[in-house]
Design brief:
Layout (H helix, E strand, L loop, with lengths): L3 H35 L8 E6 L4 E5 L6 H14 L8 E2 L3 H13 L3 H10 L6
Parallel strand pairs: 1-3
Antiparallel strand pairs: 1-2
Length: 126
Amino acid sequence: MISAKRFAQLAKKWQRMAALRRNRKQLSWEAAKGADECCTSVAGKGHCVVYTVDGRRFEVPLAYLSNVVFIELLQMSHEEFGFASDGRITIPCDAAVMEYVMCLLRRSVSAEIERSFLSTMAVPCH
């Protein structure tokens, strides 16, 4: 049988180890996030980089550029921001809307859903 003192020591040791594991996971996640954010100049092969008005970076597959929804986003971007001198393409919506657009494009939704989304885009996204 284990004494109460020894049991308390083991419990403290396990708590410290669990805390270290949590910190290690958090640090590795933050490092990976930071590494992703530092590489903002070059897009991956077959992708185009766009930014939302809140500064979030999205790598969009080149195949999406011919989609009606994305073409409309690019036209809205041109109307609102013109040709930026810093070379960034800024989409006039926030990151949540852009994530939704990417989800729609990934799933290859029907033309009816695309039309309904386009009708909601008549009002600015931000």
